[in-house]
Write a structure and sequence with these properties.
Layout (H helix, E strand, L loop, with lengths): L30 H9 L4 H5 L5 E3 L16 E14 L7 E8 L5 E7 L2 H6 L5 E6 L2 E3 L2 E5 L2 E5 L18 E3 L8 H14 L11 H7 L4 H9 L4 H31 L13 H8 L6 H14 L6 E6 L5 H14 L3 E5 L3 H15 L16 E5 L5 H13 L2 E6 L13 E6 L7 H9 L6 E6 L5 H7 L4 E5 L9 E7 L5 H16 L3 E5 L15 H10 L12 H9 L9 E4 L5 H12 L5 E4 L12 E7 L6 H8 L9 E7 L7 H10 L3 H11 L26 H17 L7 H10 L2 H9 L1
Parallel strand pairs: 4-7, 10-15, 10-16, 11-13, 11-14, 12-13, 14-15, 17-22, 18-20, 18-21, 19-20, 21-22
Antiparallel strand pairs: 1-9, 2-3, 2-5, 3-4, 5-8, 6-7
GO molecular function, one term: hydrolase activity
Protein name: Probable DNA 3'-5' helicase RecG
Keywords: ATP-binding, DNA damage, DNA repair, DNA-binding, Helicase, Hydrolase, Nucleotide-binding
């Protein structure tokens, strides 16, 4: 089994040295102590890697009295006053006016629009370096939307000024606690002066540096933190962008190489086996994508290297059929296959689907079964003791060829006779330890197939899932009906729109259909809002001058009361489902909904991965702007699973200019999950490709852009494969091994394998 790389202390050099060797100060309030406390930064490399979040580009410094209207300029000034007011034409927007002076008797008003950051960062008494273009207004100079950087004193800006008076680009760092940009800047500048950066060995091979026209490591660090020009910091960023991609791709290539070197039993398909009989009895035709991926998997299972494949496909693309065909190929060779599902509801659904799909082949020990078939066993935590004991015996003896279960599968007492394939469904819901625990059950390296219904852009797949081969299902099986999605904005429409939402639910129920209603929160019976409609709560929030996201998010408990009071739904059978309920209650509720015994299911996002209910044709999401695009798409995928026309209503109380509205419009515009994945990246401005940006060693990836850097990541991947093919253990690339140890720490390792 592939092992995760650990930080390599044997090759510790300058970058791994403690900051205290280069920056003095041991008091609790010293910069070194604050760097450790607030940012987790303790070494030279961690501080050098703490990149500025932006740069302020400057011109020549001037005094306020010398400013000329229409000419972009820079000046150092002190904040004398600051005030914020609402705009008369749009009370939801605000203006912050800052009056500054430079000690010569001249002053200037600078206005910031909706600048909560400026209001916070520019209190009275603050000195800052401002850049902008002053304009004449009613005979006086003023400025709108100036760029600025806080400085300790007016004289400190000379550190960034050339002999000609031009100000170099000034780095602005992510701040935390008492660590302001000036304080971080002083620490970094001191480190640049005291540390011998020229002694650093570059982790990128020289021939790659030349081909990519990249600056060396020492110069890149200097230009990152103290650039003398715009071109300098841009070249430094290009260098670190490639380094980040190359280091990660090297680790992933090493992991692929290690995994491929593990011995595995060849498990070729049999012409007269269960797989061929299953295929012959299929009541539908496989899509082109299912056939292509099936052939890839079939060849890998027959090979001598363990398969390690990610199967991604939109909701309803037929991933389960592909997985079942792989499992049957394993069973045909005398092995076992296990499918790990994140919830009992989903495990039960997979079990029922597999048994129904196999028919007599799943009942070898029954009178109406096929004696040449294979037993399918379900193992979950809520099984009765006798049933659980029987399942464990079937698994250990090998009588069960296919095993479906939840986390119960990875418990110590579960023993497989010959586990040949581990299938992990909705793999992002499992930690690396859980996935490895299932593979460890084999006693040897099994084939692995992980599945996700969350479409992944190619660059993200190469970066986050780079140790896996990726297969994609883009087509939907025949017979699927489209889902029509509409945004219902209650802030800009009258109460008739809300009444129409509930009336539509009644119409679907009257036609024998079922309805999902999704809320962001569970709520509390003891604290239900005193409103009889969603719009009433919105109007009350507006009267109270609520800013931000508007009213408190809708809850399951409150919606149950509202919906039960609707004239069109008074006779409807309504139930609630949420995460605080007992697992048995949740399972029973989903089963009743699947059986058609519930008309309206009011739920939180626990249904995101849930049972198939082909009869559900309407989904009403309340306050959907509180969900991400991927989650909205996954939730919407609960409907449209049968022959009925399906509708999804995104009922929002947010204002029309709320940033979440852009996400809702995107979801309403398409049902293509891959298109939405690209939109999601753009709307989130990408941020950290490996997740939430953190500080210090746990900062993850900060340089790579999944929208911009596909070609770069591809080149880095090819370079990494060459390095690993020639030096699998990186014995000749110790500096690269050390870089992997610094970047791919334990936290990032877990995220890499979880995705």
């Amino acid at each position: 089994m592939t092992t995760a790389a650990q930080p390599v202390s044997a090759f510790a050099g300058l970058l791994d040295q403690p900051l205290t060797r280069y920056i003095p100060g041991n008091s609790p309030t010293s910069t070194v102590k604050l760097l450790e406390k607030d940012l987790g930064v303790t070494t030279v490399g961690e501080l050098l890697d703490y990149a500025p979040r932006r740069y302020i580009r400057r011109g020549h410094l001037q005094l306020l009295g010398d400013l000329v209207a229409g000419e972009r300029t820079s000046f150092v000034a002190r904040v004398e006053s600051s005030s914020t007011r609402r705009m008369q034409r749009d009370p939801r927007r605000s203006l912050t006016d800052v009056i500054v002076s430079d000690g010569t008797g001249a002053s200037l008003k600078i206005t910031f629009f909706n600048a909560y950051t400026a209001q916070k960062e520019l209190p009275v008494g603050t000195h800052a370096l401002f850049t902008g273009k002053p304009e004449l207004y009613r005979g006086n100079l003023s400025m709108t939307g100036a760029d600025y950087a806080v400085v300790d004193t007016p004289d400190s800006v000379t550190d960034f000024t050339s002999q000609s008076g031009e100000v170099y680009p000034i780095p602005v760092y992510p701040e935390s606690g008492k660590l302001t940009t000036p304080r971080i800047t002083r620490a970094v500048q001191q480190l640049l002066l005291t540390a011998d950066l020229d002694s650093l060995t570059d982790p990128i091979p020289h021939h790659i540096l030349e081909r990519e026209k990249l600056v060396g490591l020492a110069q890149a660090y200097r230009d990152l933190h103290r650039p003398e020009s715009v071109d300098a910091f841009q070249k430094a960023q290009e260098r670190f962008r490639y380094q980040e991609a190359f280091v990660l791709q090297t680790e992933l290539a090493r992991r692929r190489h290690e995994h491929a070197s593990q011995p595995v039993e060849e498990r070729p398909a049999r012409a007269d086996g269960l797989l061929s009989r299953y295929d012959a009895a299929l009541p539908f035709t496989l899509t082109d994508g299912q056939r292509t991926v099936g052939e890839q998997i079939q060849a890998e299972l027959a090979g001598t290297a363990p398969m390690n494949r990610l199967l991604q496909g939109d909701v309803g693309s037929g991933k389960t059929v592909v997985a079942l065909r792989a499992m049957l190929q394993i069973v045909d060779t005398g092995g076992q296959a296990a499918m790990l599902a994140p919830t009992e509801v989903l495990a039960q659904q997979h079990y029922d689907k597999i048994v129904a799909s196999l028919g007599p082949l799943a009942r070898p020990d029954q009178l109406d079964g096929d004696p040449d078939g294979t037993k399918v066993v379900l193992l979950t935590g809520s099984l009765p003791t006798a049933a659980k004991r029987a399942a464990l015996l079937d698994i250990a003896s090998g009588a069960a060829g296919i095993v479906v279960g939840t986390h119960a599968l990875i418990q110590e007492k579960v023993q497989f006779a010959d586990l040949g394939l581990a299938v992990v469904d909705e793999q992002h819901r499992f930690g690396v330890e859980q996935r490895d625990a299932l593979r460890d059950k084999a006693g040897h390296t099994p084939h692995t197939l992980v599945m996700t219904a969350t479409p992944i852009p190619r660059t993200v797949a190469m970066t986050v899932f780079g140790d896996l081969d990726v297969s994609t299902l883009r087509e939907l099986p025949g017979g699927r009906r489209p889902i029509h999605t509409h945004v219902v904005g209650l802030a800009e429409h009258g109460p008739s729109w809300e009444r129409r939402v509930w009336a539509l639910a009644g119409e679907h129920i009257s036609r024998g259909r079922q309805v999902y209603v999704v809320a962001p929160k569970i709520g509390d019976d003891a604290a239900l809002p005193p409103f009889d409609s969603l719009r009433d709560s919105l109007l009350a929030a507006q009267e109270q001058g609520a800013d931000g996201d508007g009213p408190e998010p809708a809850t399951v408990q409150w919606l149950e009361r509202l919906i039960s009071a609707q004239p069109e739904l008074r006779d409807a059978r309504i139930a609630v489902l949420h995460g605080r309920q007992d697992p048995l209650v949740k399972t029973e509720t989903m089963n009743r909904f699947a059986a058609g015994e519930i008309d309206v299911l009011i739920s939180t996002t626990v249904i995101e991965v849930g049972v198939d209910v082909a009869n559900a044709s309407l989904m009403i999401m309340v306050d959907p702007e509180r969900f991400g695009i991927s989650q909205l798409h996954q939730l919407r995928g609960r409907i449209g699973r049968g022959e009925h026309e399906s509708t999804c209503l995104l009922v929002t109380r947010s204002r029309p200019d709320h940033p979440g509205r852009e996400r809702l419009a995107a979801v309403a515009s398409t049902t293509d999950g891959f298109e939405l994945a690209e939109v999601d990246l753009k709307l989130r401005r990408e941020g950290n490709i490996l997740g939430a940006s953190q500080s210090g060693r746990k900062s993850g990836l900060r340089w790579i852009s999944a929208l911009r850097d596909e070609a770069l990541v591809t080149r880095a991947r090819e370079d990494a494969e060459v390095v690993i093919s020639e030096d699998p253990q990186l014995a000749q690339h110790t500096e690269l091994l050390a870089a992997i140890g610094r970047v791919v720490d334990e936290n990032s390792q877990a995220f890499l394998e979880r995705g």
